[in-house]
Design brief:
By secondary structure, this protein is of the alpha/beta class. The protein has 34 helices and 26 strands. The strands form six sheets. It has an eight-stranded mixed β-sheet with strand order 5-6-4-7-8-3-9-10, with helices on both faces. Helix 4 (57-71) packs antiparallel against helix 11 (167-183), helix 7 (111-125) runs antiparallel to helix 8 and helix 13 crosses helix 21 (424-432). The termini are far apart.
Length: 917
Amino acid sequence: MVLSTATLSAWAKSDRDGGSLSLVRHLADSAEVAKLVWDRWLPRHTREVISRGLPGGEGDGRLFLCWLAAVHDVGKLTPAFACQVTALADAMHAKGLRMPSAVGNRKALPHNLAGQLAVIEFLVGLGWDRGVAATHAVVVGSHHGVPPTAREFRNAGSQTALFGSGQWENSRKELLTFVTERTGAVARLGAWQAVSLSLVQQSLLTAAVIVTDWIASNQDLFPLDENRVSSVAAPAAWNLLGLPRPWQPTVVAVSGESARADFVRARFGWPKSMMVRPLQLECVRVAAAIHVPGLMVVEAPMGEGKTEAALAAAEVLAQRFGFGGVFVALPTMATSDAMFARVRQWVENLPDTPSSMFLAHGRAALNPEFAALRRRGFCSIGTDCADSGVAAHAWYVGKKGPLANVVVGTIDQVLRLALKTRHVMLRHLALANKVVVIDEVHAADNYMSTYLCRSLEWLAAYGVPVVLLSATLPPAQRELLIEAYRRGRGDSDDKACVAGGGYPCITLWPSPQGAVSVAASGRVIDGIEIGKVCDDPDGLARTIAGAVVPGGGVVGVVCNTVARAQETFEALTRAGFTDDELLLVHSRFVATHRMALESRLRSALGPPAKSLRPGRFVVVGTQVIEQSLDIDVDLLVTDLAPMDLLLQRIGRLHRHRRQQRPAQVDAPRCLIRGVDWDAVPPQPVPGSQAVYGRARLLRSAAVLGARKESTVTVPEDVPGLVAEAYSDEITVPGSWAAALAVADDEWQAHVDDQQRRAQSYLLPAPDTENSTLQGWLMAGIPEDADGAGGQAQVRDAEDTIEAIVVQRCGNEVRVLADVPETGGMVVPTETEPPQKLAKQVAACTIRLPAFLTRYGRKERVIRALEDTWYPGWQQSHWLAGELVLELNEDRRASLAGHDLEYDSRLGLLVASTQDVQ
């Protein structure tokens, strides 16, 4: 078939220098790239899901993706699009594609929507049912990341001037016929017309077309040059891009316990003499035995090796079921940073190392290991990426980052799977390609759990194996998560899946056995003494000094608020502890400073082989200490917290096997503070109640107070304590009953409110009545969903402001002295700072306390920060538009009726002034 001169005149790309690329050439490039995306990039499981229901299996799936890529921009053959460049529109006009005298509102017919309409009419013209055609064409309508709404679709049909009739209509049909013949799809359309694509297939195909379009639109790879053969140019461009293939793990023998033990040791570089724990062996056995990908809920004590068990199981699952990578999600950026190093070590030990890694959180650029991988990745462009080392490939940045083979990131990255936001289908593809591991899953509150459950539904619909890890998962939460996964799979069996009562335990779905009890490793922390201590900071400091000053030892103090942590740290300083003996870690340090502090924490208190433990040391911190950090303290002091979180904190106590601990802290002891113990019922401090709610704190106090023994044994007592604290039948002293009933009612109202608010931007479930993605993201969140905006929507946190912190010294602006590498450096403000310095300054951010923006003060704070405006910074990609908190020579500033001071040891201090409005 030969195209008419009118159709050949249609353009797709242009630049400011007058260059252009025809629509025919761009679609041909896209079709060829789609073949490579299928053959060299999509994992086997994803290809199988896309091909599900197509008569020709994966062969049809490949051809179908190629055809969709070849038609995705057909909507550019409309006056609405073509009129944008006058010279090119005139050329089309001269070839018979007449431009209307008045085009009207172009926004009423974007080219993706025009393409969707054109493809539907083309398929209907071939005898397709309109409803079936809509499930295919919606991929074209969604390829810019947002499917059209039903209203947009209805209104588009009446936009005759924008859509174009006569020769415009003829050329669109001609082009669609041409590419259908050229791709070979013409022979299969008849077989496909009976296949309605599921929402799962529509989402994955849309994401694959987006990836294809991004690559084919890259002018470094595909210049605006008509004189090329796309089938030759595309493989050359792909080789230049060097996009890594999906991970394809080697088949390993794990049929016997000895083989499984050798497998685990090899993956983590352990010597033959090192014991592999029963939990790790059982996770590998289960992964090798299950018949279909499913959900594994792994519950085991702190320090039992759950992370290693999950990674070993993930390799087996990926190999058996054709997944191309692993996604490891954690509660916070700090825990993600710590985990990144551990996962990278595992990756480097694999016999078939995945080619790309990505650290997915807002401060990833500050992680030195990830930065080193990124440098390796950027250097690799132009090579075939066939070496055995892992890299952070340069293409995997921004929204594309989670598409890498192995990703470590915050749980937000998984929760955003269920968030209505542009390009969410890319996140679906990223996770559908992988085995997903979520650590510390109990840390998700009710608001986050709403998103987590919906994410699990989608992961189940994609057939993704999910491994959930926790030491202290309440039974009701476990059942909620399993039920979400069951719904997503569409299983009709309504039988509840509950754990078998053992601990450690692996709960499976789907599985006829439901749960598997696992033998404990023998690692027991027996007789942990639980005591109460007064809340006076100076009195606490004296208690700690009495415990560790004579013979040494390491104390961990966990506070529920930053203010309490700062207050405790100052008391310890007054008690005579030196800077070398103290460490404070919380969220109100400048980001680069905080990372250095967290690195010091891991270096001091990590596993014996990886740390240099100080003789006498006190670390004071907030909740970061309780989550996923492999640190070990001799004595624990903690604010009262919900039982599951309290036990997480206790999990840092005597965590590592050590030959000898100082005599006065040789027996494990946990002291609980933050409570008026003399009140009836006990009265937690206001800050703790604001964070956790009074009900859960009273329940913890009641369960601990009701125990006959004053000690706790880990792991034996863990599941019982958690279950009792969250039980509807909890036993409390009679004098507490009324207060607890009121607190429970308040907490339930809070939970109901969280779940209601979470619905606002919640993605529909995969089993929705809608047959297409149309309207999928209606009322979605703004464009910054990959940044703070997205995090704010999937976490129930107060709206806060982030600003870059600098210090004015005379006429100069300097980096704070506490910042590693660049501390004290002068930063140009009238001219553009050097790129390397600008990037480092951009990382010197701090998130201001939420109370600064309460009561209508947010706009006032923003205006005050905007008063500090540096013209030179607006020329920098890293600094343009950023808010700046400028401190004076004394490191002080006034903001919204508050005095702010940045202290090297305490972080940001905030105090009210006399003129607070």
